[in-house]
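re: that chain from earlier
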Amino acid sequence: MSKADPIAYPPRGLNRDEAARYIGVGPTLFDEMVKDGRMPKPKRANSRAVWDRIALDAAFTDLPDDGGNVLDRLLSGRTRAA
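^ sequence. v structure.
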């Protein structure tokens, strides 16, 4: 019987399905996004592909949104979409 970890933390490494779910898309679209560079390539743990959650966060932030990147607008002092 394993003892529960007293520190709650999200996993740093995610498998393909978890990574796709993390950014809110299905595995097929996630694969396309990795292939075209919108999402990062995985790290390798022996033969396993593992995506870094922090790299996914950075790539997700760089995706365009309908009103421009909110973080970029905040950092530049603009409050409305261009």
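The two ends are 56 Å apart (CA to CA).
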